[in-house]
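Data availability (excerpt). The following record was deposited with the supplementary files.
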Amino acid sequence: MKRGAMSAVQLSGGLSKLKKKHFRVKHQKVKLFRANEPLLSVLMWGVNHTINELSHVNIPVMLLPDDFRAYSKLKVDNHLFNKENMPSHFKVKEYCPLVFRNLRERFGIDDQDYKESMTRSQPVLVDTPGKSGAKFYQSWDKLFIVKTLTSEEVERMHSFLKHYHPYIVERHGKTLLPQYLGMYRLTVDGVEHYVVVMRNVFSNHLRTHRKFDLKGSTVDREASDKEKEKDLPTLKDNDFVKEGLKVYIGDEAKEKLLETLTADVGFLTKLHLMDYSLLLGLHDVERAEEERHQAAAAAAAAAAAGSSDGEDVDGAGGEGAGGIGTLDEDDEDSSGSGVVRGPMGLHSGGYIGMTTPPDSPRTLVREAGLHDGCIIPELDIYAVPSAEGAPRKEIYFLALIDVLTHYGVKKQAAKAAKTVKYGANVDGISTCDPEQYGKRFIEFMSKAIE
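Predicted structure:
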């Protein structure tokens, strides 16, 4: 039997042979998937189950077209042994398991680490300003983001994946595109939910002090007053331009960054995709140092007063624009596998990175003191430090988000409406065609980076 056919059989329906041994009560007692909503319990259970199943499947030398259509599917009835946490009836479907396993590997994410991040504790809902109505959750260790999708978006992801995987292979993982790590359909109480898991753009231990969602358009691109009231608002192009801000990373880093960005935008343009954004997070090094001193002083004062309240007073981190972001507690560094080169290979030698050999416990050293203010290369893969001589010492987090909008009927109608409103020659209209959009996007970013 051809391997391609085997993978589709194994992963479409063929996992039924393995099902029985996974229903023993003894196996499940090890892990109770406690969450405050059934969907999250089922997601945790599903990731745990599918990763365990994948460990029995031989790793193929190369992926075949069948692997991009394959899925594993499971239906659970009368789930009585853990009823206080899990619904009695649910279904879990994982899309393209071998493709996503291969992507996780290429992005330097070990399957056991992925499982640990997604199942040890429930993902947490994060507040986002997106218009799409999608919900975003963050894994307990802030390494991954879970985004809800519509069934149409799942179809788009399938179509995108066929081009995305070869592009990631060709670029050796050197990209600012979202790192897609798994996609699932979860059926709870007869209702189907679709989710995709991505790597968090922002750090899980360096706080984000400001964040921007930049499209390279200045028409209708300003954060609302309501948004600006938030602790960490998602600011937009006009806010960035009005403040006269720049990303100060130096000539060499700028060249590398723009090369990666240009390749990614070229890839998206070829697929007629547009409306994507650059998510930019700023970590202010001096402000962070001040916050640490204040936190230490407050902790010392509390200890002196005999207080038993040992809470971190660093405050909450920020939620991600378009669902990607947040970071705060310095003691939450978590699992990483090996050294992962950042998308542009831009980590400077001045920062300490720590790795763990494969056989050691799967966590990074948790003593915050070892990492204060430092980029950890295998975790902070989107981080670029400010250049020597920059006006402020900052660490920037940059990545592309929301990359699946196809230039179709809706976008053309929106362009027509905005042309009527603003006139045909306004450069700033965000709803132009993909080539114009990409060209304007690169021009804007080129000016924004020094």
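Summary of structural features: DSSP finds 13 helices and 14 strands in the chain.
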